[in-house]
Amino acid sequence: MVSQRSLSRLFVLHSWAGIVTGLLLFVVCFSGSVVVFKGEIDRWANPSLAQLPRAAQAVSLSVVLHRLELAYPGAMVETIVPPDAISPAYFAWLREPGAAAEQRLKVAVRADTGEVLGPVDSQLGQYLRMLHVFLFFGPRWIVGFLGVVMLVLIATGVVIHRKILAELFTLRWGRSFRLVMSDLHKSAGIWGLGFHILIAVTGAWMGLAPLFEQTFRYVSTPSRSVSAQAPAKNEGRQVAMLPLDDLQAAAQRAIPGLEVRQVSLRAWGRASARVSFAGGLQGHMMSTAKVELNAATGAQLAVIDPRAGGFWSKVNGLMEPLHFGDQGGLALKCLYFVLGMTPAWLSISGTLIWLDSRQQRRVAGQAPV
After folding, report:
1. Which residue from 44, 93, 207, 270 could staple onto 79, CB 3.0 to 4.6 Å apart?
2. Are residues 134 and 105 in the same domain?
3. Does 234 have pLDDT greater than 70?
4. CA distances from 297 to 243, 271, 303 (A)
């Protein structure tokens, strides 16, 4: 049995945690609800691409890369995304000569002919994802920290409102503003409780796990000498690259069942060139499979197969599909959208309850004795 004093302290913690982070939580939760439709939003924002025919057999990655190099001489192609169930076109991100380090051009390529269509009209879906994952320019651990705050709010809210079942259908319409808001706040929190826990845990994991992993690696790895860190003498020389299709086949041999959803190229054309193929696994929800190869020799540099990486690797592979709901089709996306709006509403209603409470105390303090 929790004492009244402990309940009061938990209520204060719940209130201030919500008030301090309320705006950020609203932005992250609202954008996260909308971004489940990222592919559909990008297609809607680029109507000319939506009208493209869907290729029965898409042209190869090697053809796409060759056409991009012809259309944008001197530009560095950094990422290629194959067509999927939503988008009928290839997308590529490239950095043009003289462009700022962070500036990338997103280009569409027809999947049936390989014709380079040029820059897309809108990247609205990508902007929404950047807002949700990074708050545009912040490190991802900030959003991960907000996931921890959500867990604190959930835990304190459950303890404060111990009569959860009794409050499932408690809506006192016609009463004071504060009571109505409080009932709506509790109802949204209770009905969406399981989903809120899922989103908070997966969001905290994806935001903070890489930070902990990098910190552990930094602490546990012996320091290397400057000479060992220096690049090899001939790494920057121009060399012939293996065909991108052959490299993709090698990646899929390394991880049977790999469904390539993103191809990343680094230093393409040089001896140190690397190419990575990332995506999901046929018949599995896990989405963190990745193979990195030397693009000049085809040598394997890294292979990440969550099926072979132990329990925590499997857990990590499930975090993104569970968080974004992108494995269950349109119906699941709609469910995620509706449920995802409830924590955004909790941020608004909690703030309104807190402001009304302060106003009531102010009025009571000014009342004549």
Report:
1. 93
2. no
3. no
4. 11, 9, 16
Contacts of 200 (CB under 8 A, 6+ apart): 147, 148, 150, 151, 154
pLDDT of residue 19: 92
Domain boundary at 121, 147, 166, which? 121
Contacts of 2 (CB under 8 A, 6+ apart): 10, 159, 162
Structure tokens at 72: 């944008």
**Of all helices (H) and strands (E), which one includes residue 302?**
strand 300-304
Q: Do 34 and 51 lie in a common domain?
A: no
pLDDT at 231 over 70: no
The gap between the terminal CA atoms of the chain, to the nearest Å, is 38
Compute the mean pLDDT over every residue in the chain, rounded to the nearest whole number: 87
What confidence tens digit (pLDDT) does each residue in 13-68 have? Answer: 998 999 999 999 999 999 999 999 998 999 899 988 888 999 989 999 999 999 99
Query: The domain containing residue 139 runs over which residues?
Result: 4-38+130-214+329-364
> Are 161 and 183 found together in one domain?
yes
CA atoms of 221 and 31, how far apart (whole Å): 38
Alpha-carbon separation of residue 29 from 126, 202, 287 (angstroms): 16, 13, 22
99's CB contacts (< 8 A; 6+ apart) are 105
pLDDT (tens digit per residue) in 214-225: 887 778 777 554
Neighbours of 282 (CB within 10 A): 9
pLDDT exceeds cutoff 80 at 229 = no
Interatomic CA distance for residues 121 and 78, integer angstroms: 20
266 HSE (CA, 13 A, CB side): 9
CA distance 25 to 343: 8
256 located within any domain:
no
Q: What is the per-residue pLDDT across 149-200, written as a single tens digit (0 to 9) for each?
A: 999 999 998 888 766 555 555 666 666 777 778 878 888 888 899 999 999 9
**Domain count for the chain:** 2
Task: Count the residues in the chain.
Answer: 369
In a domain, 333, yes or no: yes
Q: Check: pTM over 0.70? Answer yes or no.
A: yes
